[in-house]
Write a structure and sequence with these properties.
Layout (H helix, E strand, L loop, with lengths): L1 E6 L2 H12 L3 E6 L9 E2 L7 H11 L3 E4 L2 H5 L2 H7 L4 E2 L3 H8 L1 H11 L6 E4 L2 H11 L4 E4 L8 E3 L3 H12 L11 E4 L6 E8 L4 E9 L2 E3 L3 E4 L4 E4 L6 H21 L6 E10 L2 E8 L6 H8 E2 L2 H10 L9 E2 L2 E8 L16 H5 L4 E5 L2 E4 L2 E4 L3 E9 L2 H12 L15 H4 L2
Parallel strand pairs: 1-2, 1-4, 2-3, 4-5
Antiparallel strand pairs: 6-9, 7-8, 7-9, 10-11, 10-15, 11-14, 12-13, 14-19, 15-16, 17-18, 19-23, 20-23, 21-22
Helix pairs in contact: 1-10, 5-6, 6-9, 7-8
Length: 421
């Protein structure tokens, strides 16, 4: 197939590598310095819907896979489908599950999806007054898209109120924080469940566990993700069966009942609270860095399954298999996530890629004067396959140690929950 992948991060590089390994002709827009070595790239930004539409009209792709959430929420998939393009990714109405946390939680409540209790507020004073009257801390979430960072898990009432005012009054996340959710605090490990869905049928791809905090031991501020691993031993068959029955199945029934156009991947953030899975949120695209882990574990042509989803003819029995273990370690720029430094030369890329079982996936990179330099907060996702998690971790960190980037940092404890027992 001739495939276009929209996006320019490590998630998209993982998809590019997966498509290329299956023998497809791969294009990417806009891509990055690493993707440019594996695919034909087009300098069209993900929010340039007119430009992407014109590119598809000119190139006649057999399949378009939309990586990030923003163009899906903006309606890119609808526009391309109207031109007869086969697209993996939901239309604007289905993308609301990620584009609006209020919409998603109300969807969950309406269709009996097990989730935490919540209240939605459009007025900061009203939200603060309600939180103080309740006398306990809440998880404060900006309603709109905030690049995975619009969530504050408050430790007390004062911190809850401060988070509300930061989002709604100070607009720390821009228009995304004009409305907020106050959600009941759950406690327990989180996992990322990925499910292919064609609007009526679904097939489980697998689970991974992300590491959101910037520092070892889950310390420091939240990020877009500092690493991930899979499988997740703590998420056993019993928990999977429970998640399917109480979260996935009612979600898919709800999509059909509400006539929401959904042909893509549901990435459901779960928390295991008191031994049971609860849905925290929906994402309508592959996670990043979770996608790197899933792609590394896939056996067969993942894109054949994506085509079936895009056509609305998903056969769960024919979905690509996942085997072995994989770990992705994100290497970030100096001062990420607060104020990332860019423009630093990246040394050691070839040595890192030479480690057996390792893929060096680019995220925030660009080429300058023939050299690869940093161009974003998350720079690389060093992804390793192994027979088990310990083997994968050893390979990943062996590769990371061969890199040299001034001021860069990374977590040294990816998969610590699984490997500490």
């Amino acid at each position: 197939m001739k495939v276009l992948i929209v996006g320019g991060g490590a998630r998209e590089h993982a998809l590019v590598r997966s498509a290329k390994s299956a023998g497809h002709a791969v294009h990417c827009a806009p891509g990055n310095a690493g993707i440019a070595r594996d695919a034909a790239t087009h300098t069209i930004k993900v929010d340039d819907l007119d430009g992407l539409e014109a590119l598809c009209e000119r190139e006649r792709f057999d399949l378009v896979v939309v990586g990030p959430e923003a163009p899906l929420v903006a309606g890119l998939a609808d526009r391309l489908r109207a031109r007869g393009v086969l697209v993996f990714g939901p239309g604007r109405d289905g993308a609301q599950l990620e584009g609006s946390k209020a919409f998603a939680k109300e969807f969950m409540a309406r269709h009996g999806v097990v989730t935490a209790g919540f209240r939605v507020f459009d007025d900061a004073d009203e939200a603060c007054a309600w939180a103080r009257a309740e006398g306990r801390p809440f998880v404060v979430k900006a309603d709109g898209l905030a690049a995975g960072k619009g969530v504050v898990v408050a430790a007390d009432v004062d911190e809850t109120v401060a988070a509300i005012r930061s989002m709604m009054v100070d607009r720390a996340f821009g228009a995304a924080g004009a409305r907020v959710l106050l959600e009941e605090r759950l406690r327990g490990p989180e996992v990322s469940l990925h499910v292919l869905c064609d609007g009526e049928r679904f097939a489980v791809l697998g689970v991974a566990q992300d590491h959101k905090r910037v520092g070892d031991g889950d310390t420091g501020p939240n990020t877009g993700g500092m690493g991930a691993y899979g499988p997740v031993p703590a998420f056993d068959e019993a928990l999977m069966a429970q998640a399917l029955a109480t979260i996935v199945e009612p979600t898919v029934r709800g999509l059909a009942a509400d006539k929401l156009a959904f042909r893509g991947v549901l990435f459901i953030g779960l928390m295991i609270h008191d031994g049971a899975p609860y849905a925290l949120e929906y994402n309508v695209r592959f996670g990043d860095p979770e996608c790197a882990v899933l792609a590394a574990r896939a056996r067969g042509d993942l894109f054949a399954s994506l085509v079936d989803v895009a056509k609305g003819s998903l056969d769960p029995a024919k979905v690509v298999r996942f085997e072995g273990a994989a770990i992705a370690v994100v290497v970030a720029s100096e001062r990420y996530p607060a104020d990332p430094v860019t423009g630093d030369v990246i040394e050691g890329l070839e040595d890192a890629a030479a480690v057996e079982g390792v893929d060096v996936l680019h995220a925030g990179t660009r080429e300058r004067d023939g050299r690869i330099v940093t161009a974003g907060g998350r720079v690389l996702a060093i992804t390793a396959r192994g027979d088990d998690l310990r083997d994968a971790k050893d390979r990943a960190y062996r590769a990371v140690e061969k890199l040299a980037i001034r001021g860069a940092h990374y977590r040294r404890d990816i998969a610590w929950r699984a490997l500490s027992t």
